[in-house]
Specification:
299 residues; Rossmann fold; Dna Ligase, domain 1; D-amino Acid Aminotransferase, Chain A, domain 1; 5-stranded antiparallel β-sheet; 9 helices; 33% helix; 27% strand
């Protein structure tokens, strides 16, 4: 097969591992800077050009679309889809997962466990919004935030009112969520490929920090998950329509709750912690996708 990895970071761990795993299986691999792609949008013969040449005879792509380029990145993935190229994660699925509000609404509609979440536009509604999620402490999240950036823990009602008012005053979209204290600053990253959780790790926040992101100094270790957590992770990925996803779960007193479904989950943390060849499993799944007929997507 001729594969293309859409990535702006060719020396990134995840990119290099995917290239290595594909090449070891005898595939030809291109690493393509997503923002350097440009398109001819025509009904008779849609094409994608890259650095002056048409990209032709690409059997499948592995999108590694950063959150900052979601709009252009998903447009490139759609163009490949128009050309009949198989894509590991579809453009629509990536768009769904990147829209935090939309993804929460879709997961809620399917009955998947979530933290109590509020969304409002007017500062006049702040008191009731805080009450809606159970009062302080609570978490305020920017809809456009990623890797823990734009996430604030408000430990008192007064602090919550001030933070929410400040964000709304800047005309910024935010979510207000209940704080799952019993999680103890830890979450579970479930790596889903197809209909299986192939690996899971527990990410623990650094001392004095409540965000467990590895980019923020968190640590990772192998996690043993329950059947309910496994089922929740697979269902969450399926609702988004993602074949490969990182599903972040908190262990609450009322069962597992999904915090986020990531369409471009990093490989370094989970491969280092588990010792599993996740990149190889991704390439193997992509090979299977090229043979199997498209399956129905829930959601």
């Amino acid at each position: 097969m001729k594969l293309a990895v859409l990535s702006r970071e060719p020396i990134n761990y995840s990119t290099q591992r995917l290239v290595s795993a594909a090449e070891s299986r005898g595939h030809e691999v291109l690493v393509i800077d997503t923002l350097r792609c440009y398109m001819s949008i025509a009904s008779h013969r849609p094409t994608i050009h890259y650095k002056g040449d048409a990209l032709e005879n690409v059997d499948a792509i592995i999108p590694r679309i950063g959150s900052s380029i979601t709009f252009y990145g998903t447009a490139v993935v759609r163009q490949f889809e128009m050309m009949g190229t198989k894509t590991l994660n579809a453009s629509l699925a990536i768009s769904r997962s990147r829209d935090k509000l939309r993804s929460m609404q879709m997961l809620a509609r399917k009955g998947i466990g979530l933290p109590i979440t509020g969304f409002a536009h007017s500062p006049d509604e702040i008191p009731d919004l805080i009450q809606m999620v159970g009062g302080a402490p609570l978490v305020v999240k920017l809809l456009e935030g990623t890797q823990g950036i734009g996430v604030v823990l408000c430990e008192t009602r007064k602090a919550a009112e001030s933070v929410i008012e400040a964000f709304l005053g800047l005309d910024t979209n935010i979510l207000v969520q209940e704080y799952i204290k019993e999680a103890g600053g830890a979450d579970i990253r479930c790596f889903v490929i197809g209909d299986k959780v192939v690996a899971s790790i527990k990410r623990q926040a650094a001392p004095g920090e409540f965000r467990s992101n590895l980019h923020r100094g968190g640590s990772a270790e192998v996690a043993k998950i329950t059947p309910e957590e496994r089922k929740t992770a697979v269902r969450a990925a399926r609702v988004m329509g993602l074949d490969v996803a990182g599903v972040d779960i908190l262990r609450s007193n009322h069962g597992p709750v999904v915090m986020e479904v990531n369409s471009s989950p990093g490989l370094e943390g989970i491969e280092m912690a588990t010792g599993k060849d996740i990149a190889g499993l991704i390439v193997t799944h992509l090979e299977k996708m090229l043979i199997d007929k498209p399956k129905r997507v829930e959601g």
